[in-house]
Amino acid sequence: MTPSGAELIRQIKSEVREVDPAAVHADLHANGSGSGAVVIDVRESEEWDTGHVPGAQHVSRSFLESRIDGVIPDRDTPVVLYCASGNRSALAAHTLQTQLGYTNVSSMIGGITLWKDRGYEVGQPQTLSKEQRERYGRHLLLPEIGSEGQTKLLNAKVLLLGAGGLGSPTALYLAAAGVGTLGLVDDDVVDLSNLQRQVIHSTSRVGIPKVDSAEQAINDLNPDVKVVKYQTRLNADNIMDIVEGWEVIVDGVDNFPTRYLLNDATVRLGIPVVSASILGFDGQLSIFQPHDGPCYRCLYPVPPPAELAPSCGANGVLGVLPGTMGLLQATEVVKLVAGIGEPLIGRLLLYEALSATFTELKVRKDPDCPICSRAEEITDEEMGVFPDYEAFCAAAG
Amino acid sequence: MSTIKIPPVLRPSVGGEKELQAEGASVGEILRDLAGKHPATQAQLFSGDGELNRYVNVYLNDEDVRVLDGLKTPVSPSDTLVILPAMAGGA
After folding, report:
1. Choosing among A168, A282, A368, A369, which should be mutated to test the B contact, i.e. which has the most B CBs within 10 A?
2. Would B15 be classed as within a structural domain?
3. Stated pTM of the model
4. Residue B9 belongs to a domain
5. What is the 3-state secondary structure (H, E, C) of A288-326?
6. Do domains A5-125 and A156-395 have the same CATH topology?
7. pLDDT digits (tens, 9 = 90+) for A310-335
8. Residue B39: domain span
9. Which one, of A281, A277, A280, A263, lies nearest residue A371 by Cα?
10. Highest mean pLDDT among A64-73, A312-321, B60-69
């Protein structure tokens, strides 16, 4: 005789381990000494949006089998599932342990209802509007991003240094991805010769400031994005005011002195820099995350002499190259903001377009680095210490 | 013979090549062999006292030779040396 639905649930519940909300709460607040369990909310999106256990991740039961691998790849990770009252989570737990081979699964008794009755805190997710759900739908389908990651992107503040070759593609794709606040620093105006590669600008906007031109393109693409414009050139006098308060900085500046100055300011403020540079057919990319990895001065302790630093005048560059490198930067920014993947920290990626090869090199933190390997704060006088820029470029001829 | 990858700024000094072969059992020997064949690279790679210039990074495969044994780091024929100068172009 086939069992009733209620009988089946009772049967399955007897086959899965159930835990009390008090145990889950204690585990989540164990400050590093907990089991490391991943808490998964298996309810539907609308239920999740009304509030959830803080720190939980959302994988609705209807997408459990297709998405759980992306969220918990290791079958031996401790997993606690919950739903509204403890039935759906028991069924989901049964699926994970009997059909998918998870070895340490439990279901929270009484679900979020009992959790709330016990007086435990409930996280209120920032909900996406109907239009945002449609716009970012392809992100929401990725378990690594989902509505939580998309919300992080919408709340993120990313500063782009330069709205030129690298900044153009980076700004467009970060705007499309829904990065909520984009800062643009550039003192230049759009020139016809920029349009071979600076795709955020357009023929009709030649002659207008790049920050204004970029703002127009960003607003056209995605009205969710707030643009903060700095029509200026970064220097020692304004850098602290400009870079403070940003979550990630994207470095696409075209000269060495500013790169050293930026490094020193961001190490002082603890802001990660996604850095790229291009020349001809070649590009370099890395992330300098203060204190977790090396800084720009660990990689390049001293600048090259002017004759080996073709960054002062106009140099040839393949038009699509800043697109390639800028989009690798944008990808790293999204990863940093969403907290996913393995960011390019302590690694330098070289791209050679003509041979279509990537080379990865290790970048070590220099224990003697005068900027990032020190306990005391970097003073204003020490920031951006560099040969005089005018003299540096004049020497390059 | 080990392979040396030449960065864009040094290519004019080696006849435009992106990759060269050079002889030697250590990083120093190989770079000196390169400088012997292409004298324009001598001053770009080495300071007056024969040490590597501070602004030139050299990698044995993917590791900076500064964290290995510098110019004395042993090299086998199957290894690749990467010479890497800083670049600052962005526009």
Report:
1. A282
2. yes
3. 0.79
4. yes
5. ECECCECCHHHHCCCCCCHHHCCCCCCCCECCCHHHHHH
6. no
7. 654 467 899 999 999 999 999 999 99
8. 2-85
9. A263
10. B60-69
CATH number for the domain harbouring residue B28: 3.10.20.30
Does domain A156-395 fall under CATH 3.40.50.300? My reply is: no
**Chain segment A125-159, per-residue pLDDT in tens:** 778 999 999 999 999 999 899 988 999 999 999 99
DSSP symbols for A80-134: EEE-SSSHHHHHHHHHHHHTS--SSEEEETTHHHHHHHTT---B-PPPPPHHHHH
Query: Which residue from A280, A301, A308 is facing B44, i.e. has the nearest CB?
Result: A308
Ordered by start, the domain boundaries in chain A are: 5-125, 156-395
Amino acid at A209: P
Closest by Cβ to B89, choosing from A278, A359, A362: A278
d(CA A130, CA A135): 9
List pLDDT tens digits, range B37-64: 999 999 989 998 989 998 899 999 999 9
Residue range A103-117: average pLDDT? Answer: 96
Query: Crossing angle for the helix pair A87-98 and A64-71, nearest 10 degrees?
Result: 70
Per the CB < 8 A criterion, the answer to whether B29 and B69 are in contact is: no
pLDDT level of residue A386 (50, 70, 90 thresholds) = low
Q: Say which CATH architecture domain A5-125 belongs to.
A: 3-Layer(aba) Sandwich (3.40)
**Domains held by chain B: number:** 1
A contacts of B10 (beta carbons < 8 Å)? 308
ipTM of this complex: 0.92
**Residue B90 falls within a domain, yes or no?**
no
Residue A252 or residue A228, greater confidence: A228
Decide if A262 contacts A380 (C-beta within 8 A).
no
Percent of residues, chain A, with pLDDT higher than 90 = 75
Q: Chain B neighbours among A 244-263 (CB < 8 Å)?
A: 251-256, 259
Beta bridge partners of A293: A290
B51, part of any domain: yes
